[in-house]
Every structure is written in structure tokens, then in C-alpha cells.
Fold this sequence. Notes:
With 767 residues, the chain is of the alpha/beta class. The strands form 5 sheets. It has a 5-stranded mixed beta barrel with strand order 1-3-5-6-7. Strands 9-10-13-8-14 form a 5-stranded parallel beta sheet, sandwiched between helices. It has a 4-stranded mixed beta sheet with strand order 17-18-20-19, covered by helices on one side. The structure holds adenosine-5'-diphosphate.
Amino acid sequence: MQSFVLGEAGAAAPPADAAAGAAAEPELLYALPLFRKPAFPGFYHVIQVQDPEIMDYIVRLRSSEKGGYLAGFMTKEMPEGLADSPQSETAAPLLSLPPTPQTQQGEKKTRKDTGKVASSDALMEVGTKLQVVTVTLGKNQAPSQPGGSLVVMPMQRIRRVGTISNPVAGVPLCAVETVPLPVLEVPTDESETSIEIRALNHEMVATMKDLLKMQFVNKEQFEQVIKYYNLDDPLKLADLAAGMSSAPRQDLQEVLTCEDAAERLRKVLLILKKDLESTRLQSQFRSQIEDKFAKENKKFILMQQLRYIKRELNLEWDGKQSIITAFKESIKKLGNLVPEEAAKAMDQELSKLGNLEPQSAEFNVCRTYLEWLTALPWGKFSEDNTDIDRAERILNEDHYSLEDVKERILEHMAVSFLKGSVHGKIMCLVGPPGVGKTSIGKSIARAIDRQFFRFSVGGLHDVSEIRGHRRTYVGAMPGKIIQALKIRQVSNPVILVDEVDKLGRDFRGDPSSALLEVLDPEQNANFRDLYLDVPFDLSKVLFICTANVTDTIPGPLLDRMEIIRLAGYVYEEKLAIANQYLIPQTIASNGVAKDMLDLQPEALAELIRNYAREAGVRELRKLLEKITRKVALSMVRAEAAERKLAMISLENLRKFVGQPPHSTDRLFQDAVPSGVAMGLAWTALGGKTLVVEARGRVPASNARAAQGVSRVVQREEKIGLTGEEWPDRWKQVRRLLRCYSVILCMLLQRGLDNYCKKDDRIELLAV
Ligand code: ADP
């Protein structure tokens, strides 16, 4: 047998047309392995070759005399790394006309349709004889591209009957002996098979038509090929359908191998039906995805169009113009009440706004700034009440006692009435909680007929809360004072700054200095908020501050304040406040009729003595509210006819307010024994009584020294402390030492011998 192994390039070539027609004599051909699918006869096939060795060998074969033919056999297995997906199998472009050498692949890496196999055993037995039409080297397209592509025309089906040689070095293809397989004929008689074939053919054509109506891979090529095809021959049509199909490679190989015409058509029809179904599913998914995508896209496109139309019709400009016109009108309304600098800033911003795109972020910043500028109450003042009597009546209506504050307000009114301005010191109401600091502030505003705004600076750290943010920040806002003016719409409200003694201070700045700038009558006529960046006159604003203690108010601020102290209330005052103010107020606020609740004097006295012992009356108010709420609930629960007066007496008081938190403050029920005196501790929350007992006599020399607290500390062993657990021992000790020194002085003045014996200890009792 002739060997086709090439020793030297071009030394030998396989006899190509050994016997196309003579079935007996096997033809010797080089076998080209096909990775993706078998080649079906009848239409051009593009085979992409990545392996440069195979490509070179084919070129050499072509240059030899009989190198125009190859035997195309599909490999039994798909090589590793090649996706066994229908997409990859159908990816081979099939052409109806002789193609021009190498289509526009450009620099793209060539597809791997063929490659080396170890031996001919790796190949299927049935294949196709391929006529090589064109060979295009990859390096002709791009120097770095290996391999190339072949355009082949599958001629006829062949069977491999023997192997001449397996691939060796220098010969990458197997040389095999092949015999042509019979060309299948369609019977023309009226036999059953023939009828069946015709029916199958019709069904196949119908399925292909359905398929062509849909979008599927290779549709274009399919349409192109079909134009040049003889559709009357069912077997040729079957070859075409199988060749174009995306069915699995094994199914296609079965079609190629099948010797029975009817069976073959049946197989192809099945493949076509599967293709149709999968194409249907694909298009269904595609349309679902497209729908989703289209919805989002549609909105975007419509918005673009709207914008375009608006621009075309000058509508956008109209929107912007109407904003500008609105601003112009509000600036006009403000008239010449606006200071020069602010008016200039407004004009500048307005012209800037005119040049900005309405969609730009800058436009919105500019617009918000103008909104603030034009919304402020420039030069707007509310008329003050000049009727002193009426003001006094209002103050008395709201609060009991607090004469100092009331008088100060009346003085303030008198001065501003005479002078026509309210320049002066800032008032600061200092006192324990619940003594009416905040509520008197509100009452002052009512008395002088001004708007009232309250804000607390307790725990405030950020200086921009008062002075505003710079406009460069995102979401910048003016400070609290400017916000208050915008809300109240007057330039002379009463602004109550609560809790000035609890101002914070950290890396974000010192709010006390900003507050000073706001409150100081010398500076606040030209207060410049960082956001507004134009001066605003705050001198007509009446600022009232509140604090619990003065110790923690920053010095410079305290200097400028006029401190009005509100001491706590004694029993009689609390009684009066409760009867005249709190009870009527709570009854009214809870919707209980006056004649439905009777709080007996003893019950009220008990409330004040044993339930609400604080300096102010807030706790008392809460208790009264609790009682009225409970009365309201019992009234609502009872039938209308059964409702009766709720009597709160000493006996049933606990039902309403529970156990008293305080028991007696008397340590000694009857007379105070000799050597015991009452001391008083003072705190921000009010006062505290301390019972101090002298339990010994300090020698005269030591007693004198003991006037200095430090010395007394040295003699601590002389002081005994009674009392169970000290919550904060040293704080208590300090307080007690102070009392000790007071008592010591007293005793010294009166003569120690009268009270205790020499070397006795002084015992301090804390209650
Ligand atoms: P503060 O600000 O000092 O903590 P508030 O102003 O909140 O106290 O007062 C607490 C409650 O006590 C308010 O309901 C107030 O009406 C009432 N109150 C305080 N002092 C008086 C008073 N002298 N006359 C009438 N009501 C008072």
C-alpha cells in the first residue's frame, strides 16, 4: 500500500480522485478532523484552522497535483475546552456562493473547527469528501494570526475503510482509505415509503417556514443558501436543514450516517422541530428581556424628547423665566426696606440664575439662596404693646409672684416706649428647673405683643447651628436665629435661648462666641450669618436666656447679661401657684369639668409636702395632671348618669399618685436636742437641709484653726460621719465640712463650754 507520509515538503500527495465512481477501489485521502459537526454535502462550508502546522500542510497539499480533496470526519469526542453548546456548533458560517477568501475576521482569533488527533480511531467512520475551494492564511490578514481558514465544498458521503498512516511529525493529518457511500434516492413510485417521504418533506418545509419567520442564529445565511437550493429534493433539503441546525453533534452525525431515506427525513424533522421549539423559547425570553429593557429605555428616551421639545418651544426658558419673575416680584415687594448690601447680593444672584441651566446643581443652590434672602422679614416689625397695665395684667395672669422678672419687663417696656428702641442688656433668667423660666419668656412675648421663638442650646457643639453653614457645603442652611426670623416673619420677635449654661465646646468651634455675636447688642446690629453672607439687623430682637446656674455660662457672655434670679418656691407659694394656676390649667387641658374634681386642701398639702419637694413646680404639675387624667378615665368609663364628683382626699390620694417618694425630713420629731443645728446645702436644683450635731469640743486653739477648711481636713479624724451609705462620700464630706466650720464659729461665739465637754467629737448627720 502506498504510503502518504511526507518526508519532505511537497514530496508526495495523496491520490485525490482515486475513484469517485468506482465503489470497489478505496480512495486515499487525508482526513481532516471536524470538531463541531459533520459536513453535509451540497453547500459551502468554512472551516477555521488554528493549528499552523495543519494549515501549512494543507497549503503544501494544494500545491501538489492531487491535493484538492480532503476527507472530513467528525471527531468522536469534542476536544476539551471547546464549548459543546449549540451556539458554538452553529457558529460556522455557511455560504451559498463561493466565498471571497477569508471574511472580515480582522485581528480576531480564529475559531477552532479542526485540529490534530492522535489516530484515526478518534474519528467517526462516516464523513464527507471535501473539495478545498479556497485557503486563506491567517498571517495574510494579520501577521500575528496563526492558522487560517478553508472554504470547502462537501461532495459526497464517504466511509473510512482503512488507515494508511496516523499523524506523525511533519504530517499532522491521518491518511485514510475511503469508499463513497451510495447517494440516497427518493422513490418516485406510489409506494408507502414514497408517500411517507412526501409527507415528511411537506412537514419539513412547513417547519422550516415557521423557523424562517422567527429570529434564530444563522437565519441570514439560511435564507441566502435556500435561494440557490433545489427544494424539490427532500434529501437535499434535509441535508441543508441538518447542516444549518443547532442540534447536538451526535444527532447530526446520526443523520449523516443514516442509509434509509425516510428514516433520515424523520430524524431531520425531529431536529427541526427541536430547533423551532428552542427558537420559540429564545424569542420569548428575548422579548421578556427586551420588554423590561424597553420600559427603562422608553422613559429615558421620552424624557430626552420632552427636554428637546421644551427647548424647541422655549418652554424650559419659560419655567426658568417664571422663577426669575417670581423672585423679581418678591424683591420688589421688599422695596427699599432691604439694606444696600443685601439688595446688591439679590441682584447679583438673580442675574447669575438667569445664566444657569435649570438642570444644573448650581441653579438649585442659587435658587435656594435667593429663596432664603427674599423670605426674610427685612425691615418688618410687629407693633409693640405700649399699654403697661395690660402687660402687667397678662404677666400676672400667667404667673404667680416672680416680681423681679415682671418688674424688669415693665421697665423694659417703659424704656422702649420713651426711647423708641429696645437696645439694652440681654436678660438671663437663672434658677432651678420648674420655676417658670421658659413659661415666663412666653408670657413676656404675649405681654409686649411680639412673636415668640424658643430654641435650646443645651449640648450644642456645632457653631454652624448658630452662625449657619458656608454655602459651599451640600445642604447648607442658615443658623437657628435666621431660621427663627424666617419662621416668625418679623425682625423683632422674642427669642428665648434655653440652657445657655449647658453650651458645648469642641473641635467644631466654640458656640459661645457665636452666641455672643448674636446676643451682644453692640455687635448684633450687623450680624452676618455664614450662609446669607449679608448683614442682618438683630438689634430689635429681644433675647432672653435661661440657665440653671451661672458658673458654667462662658465669662464674656455672662458679662453682657443681666441676671435675674428665680429662687425656688416655698410651701405657701407652691400652694398658691397650684390653686390659682396649675389646678385650673390641668383641669382645662384634660377636659374635666371644674365641678367634677375636688382636690381637698389636705391632699394638696400632702402632695406639696411629701410628693413634690423640688424647688420648682414642674413635678407638682405632673402630679396634678396624673390625678386629672385618672379622673377623666374614670368619668369616661362610668355611664353618663352615674358620673359623680371625684373627691381627692388624704385617704384616697395614694390611689391616684401612689406612695410618696419622700417621708418626713424631720430627724428629730420633737425638740431638737442640744448640740444639733440645722445646716443648709445649696445646689443648682435648689437647697437641701442638713442636720448637724456637735458631738465634742475642739480645743480653742484648734477651733480657731478649723475655720480654714484645709486645716479641718487635716483633723478629719475629729469628725465622725453618721449615715448609712454615702453615694459620693467626698462630695458629702466637703459639704459637711462647710457646715462644720459654720457651726464651729457659732459655738465659738457663744462659748463652747455651754454645749459640750472638752475633747468631745462633733458628729454630722446627713439626712
Ligand atoms: P423652667 O423653664 O424654669 O424649667 P417652666 O417654665 O418649664 O420651668 O415651668 C414649669 C411649669 O411650672 C410651667 O407649666 C409653668 O406654667 C409652671 N410655673 C412655674 N412657675 C410658675 C408661677 N410662678 N406661676 C404659675 N405657674 C408657674
